[in-house]
Amino acid sequence: MTVLFVVLPLAILFAGVAVAAFIWSVRTGQFDDLKTPASRMLHDDDEK
Amino acid sequence: MTVSLDTPPPSPTNVVASNCVCAHCNLPVPAGLVDASAEDQFCCHGCSTAYAIIHSCNLDRYYAFRDRDGVTPQPAAATGHRYLELDDPAFLDLHAPLKSDNTRTTDFYLEGVHCAACVWLVEKIPAIDHGVIDARLDFGKSLVRLTWREGETKLADIARTLDSLGYSPHPARSATARSVRKLDNRRQLIRIGVAGACMGNTMLLAVALYAGLFATMDNSYTLLFRWLSMLIGVVALAWPGAVFFRGAYAAIRTRTPHLDLPIALGLGVGGIVGVINTFRGTGEIYFDSLSVLVFLLLVGRFLQHRSQALADDSVELLFALTPMTAHRVSPQNPMQIDDVPITSLQLNDIVEIRPGESIPVDGIITRGDSSIDESLLTGESHPKSVSLNFPIHAGTVNISSPIYAQVRATGEDTRVGKLMKLVTECARRKAPIVLFADRLGGRFLIAVLFIAAAVFTLWTMLGSANAADHAVAVLIIACPCALGLATPLAVTVAIGRAARRGILIKGGETLERLAQPGLLLLDKTGTLTTGRMSLRSWQGDETLQPLVAAIEAHSTHPIAGALTSGLASTATLTATDIQQHLSGISGTCEGQALLIGSQHFMEIHHVDIPYELLQTTYDATPVFIAANGLVRACASVGDTLRPDALTALNSLRALGWRIAILSGDHPDVVRHIADQLHVTDARGGLLPEQKLAIVQEELLRGPVVMVGDGVNDAAALAAATVGIAVHGGAEASLAAANIYLHTPGLLPIVDVMHASQKTLTIIRRSLAASLTYNAFSVTLAALGIINPLIAAILMPISSLTVLSLAMGSKTFRRTLP
Fold first, then answer.
1. pLDDT at B19
2. B179 interfacial to chain A (CB closer than 8 Å)
3. Secondary structure element (H or E) that encloses residue B576, with its range
4. Rounded to whole angstroms, how far apart are CA atoms B475 and B782?
5. Average pLDDT, rounded, for chain B
6. Is the pLDDT of residue B756 over 90?
7. Helix (H) or strand (E) holding B506
8. Which residue of A30, A36, A44 is the best one to mutate when testing the B interface, meaning the one whose CB has the most B CBs within 10 A?
9. In chain A, count of helices (H) and strands (E)?
10. What three-state secondary structure class fits B706?
11. What pLDDT is stored for residue B237 in this prediction?
12. How far apart are CA B623 and CA B536, in angstroms?
């Protein structure tokens, strides 16, 4: 079970990466408007 | 009374032709507007323009999207503004500075954005105006961000395009306030995210530790788990949890009770003792419970904050009301007209106001006849005819023809400016209600400290070595998590459900204020009546009725609509020679030349009105009908009472409210309405300032709720304990009111009253439940039976109880009577 001494800090490091990713997504404004994108994708068309 | 019959109303009336619907908005087309030769029919000019634009740019998919989404159709209510002031270099540099890639960006609030298809259409602006690079719409805020290439298009052109599609744009001026709010929102989200991650990880570690309580675990593993949970726990307390310490510090500095005080105490003591115990290697650590606390409290706070921000956003439209520039007639050369900012106008300058424009200043007409929509200021829905020497007011809209006016007041000195100042003053004077939970916070802190001290002394006297541990357990376990969640949860649930019913409530304290019944003041226009004209009575020759109906079918005026729907018409009759005049309509039908219009209209055409038809009726507008030069009949047309008005008032009375009517309308009209509704206290003919005085006087006696629409009520709305702005009123009354009703009628008010009482009950119940939990767990801690495991179980249970109380409540679920 001594592997815990390596795995646990590693797991927490992973969690830290996830938190960092979340902070990045908030800071780049991906959570600013949760209502419009939902309806925007409904009407996304194939003209592009 | 002079009523101009030739002004098209802003929206189509109820003159319905047989199953012919508008190609743009699907609403019925008035019979007089049906063009048999055209393929598509339109209910109004606005819809026809919008349809032409959409069609010519191959954006017809809009209709498919809209029909698929199944939304209620709305006509394209274009204002016809020219938006020239937007191309003013000063405006552009301030609100849309030129960027290095030769583009400009600005934000507009749009009116009339109501469905997902609107999002699609607005974001397709680049396909209509090729100079626009990008249009992004924030549906929740009705805010569009436009980016366009300098030189390829003009902002005024973009604005006109938006306007003709039915989305009248208003420049969004408070860009800084908005970005501050946005950043604040992001910070809160980050805090919640970090707190959530910390919570999850400490809980996982705690599970391992608790498992170790029941089985043997090697000491080195225990140490590892303890150190790691300390690490994460300290992050949770020092980063997201810092909010509570800052709040507690502010509460101490300003000496106001606040719920942050006991929270910070619990978190602080728990954190410090936990760190010490981790270093010592023995003793209890509470990091799992502490990080759960931080997370849950942050979520509660976020919910509260968001419902408030939502309301703030919808208020900002107010500041886009009066125009920023005016067309000044050059003092040197009367033929030259310059567009100047309002601020550089001088008293006695002459300004030109074109049809369809908002009037920028208060002044006196020096040239021109027109009709003016004063609904913003007076709430009166009929346009008023004006001519030489008539006073005009800023914020009202010139409808039919250009007028010239001499400036008497600008900016804050105008009537609308003064009213707005009154609104802000009244809003500021209203002392903020300290939330019940916050008031409780102070006493709670003292009680907890007292109990902890008592526990410590008692256990020391009993000779226990663990006296300090027990006291610390009391401090941590007493941390009022559920107490902090109770109010925001109950309020957010109520506000959220209200919003889905078209009731916008600003701030939770509004609900708290409404729970105590008092005096309910109603404004007649718009709240009690439908605002739609209908035929009240007919005097004189009844054989003329079908002829009148046939002629009036050609007009879109509200009065014409009332006459066509109220009179029996015969489909075979055809009217010819239809001519619309300023205050009437003329035409020939069945060989009779008919004149239909106001008394003034008859006088212009030198037709005498027989004495028996000429009588003063104040509750309705008289319309005279002359056939072949003789007045033969008089129809009176008036506003009708809402069908639900009496039921709603009776339910309000049952809740303990006293009802009174305050109105700017003629006292006789008000009396007439009040009698039908059994309201004894009804006052009419009031100026906005008088309404304010009455509200302030009544406030001395108890809570006053003011229900009104329009800017004319704004000051009274702001001064009242709670101001309720109703559907169809000016968007400006939003700013002053605490509640805004999107749905017509009085029943939503009954709903709000019910909901506020229910919400308060739920808050009280939740507070009681959380206090009981605290009392129970503090007792356990004082007796020394508590350990981190029991704490970790008790804490979520109390929060879950509060949550289920709030969610399971029946607020706003009542079926309407």
1. 61
2. no
3. strand B575-581
4. 10
5. 79
6. no
7. none
8. A36
9. 2, 0
10. strand
11. 94
12. 11
Other Cβ atoms closer than 10 A to B58: 10
- A41: CB partners within 8 A, 6+ apart: none
CA proximity to B779, closest of B500, B355, B477, B450: B477
Q: CB-CB: which of B139, B189, B231 is closest to A39?
A: B139
Question: Position of tokens 């300390």?
Answer: B230
pLDDT above 60: residue B315 = no
C-beta of residue B680 within 8 angstroms of C-beta of residue B649: no
Across the beta sheet with B370-373, the strand order is B384-386, B370-373, B397-398
Between A4, A26, A45, which is nearest B186 by CB?
A26
Q: Is B776 on the interface with A (CB under 8 A)?
A: no
Sequential DSSP letters for B9-50: PSS--S---TT-B-TTT-PBPPGGG--TT-SS--SSHHHHHH
- Give the residue among B715, B714, B713, B716 at the shortest CA–CA distance from B698: B716
Tens-digit pLDDT profile for residues B605-647: 888 887 777 765 556 777 888 888 888 888 888 777 888 888 8
Identify which of B116, B201, B218 has the shortest CB distance to residue A42: B116
Q: What is the DSSP string of B563-575?
A: HHHHS---TT--E
Residues 6+ apart with CB under 8 A from B338: B327, B328, B330
> Is A22 within 8 Å of B201 when comparing Cβ atoms?
no
pLDDT at B5: 39
Residue B109 token pair: 């609030």
Other CB atoms within a 10 A radius of the CB of residue B428 amount to 9
- What's the CA gap between B356 and B350, in Å, rounded? 18
Count the Cβ atoms, other than its own, within 10 Å of residue B218.
11
pLDDT tens-digit map of B651-661: 889 888 899 98
Q: Do A12 and B228 touch (CB under 8 A)?
A: yes
Higher pLDDT pick, B757 / B688: B757
**What single-letter amino acid sits at B671?**
R
Cβ contact, residue pair B194, A23, below 8 Å: yes
Instruction: Using the Cα atoms of residue B592, residue B597, residue B602 and residue B605 in order, give the sign of their dihedral.
Output: negative
In the numeric block, the tokens 């020219």 are attached to B82
Contact B169, B125 (CB under 8 A): no
The yes-or-no verdict on residue B314 having pLDDT over 50 is: no
Looking at the complex, report in whole angstroms how far the Cα of residue A46 sits from the nearest Cα belonging to chain B.
Answer: 12
Q: How far apart are CA B636 and CA B536, in angstroms?
A: 5
DSSP B157-223: HHHHHHHHTT--EEE---HHHHHHHHHHHHHHHHHHHHHHHHHHHHHHHHHHHHHHHHS---HHHHH
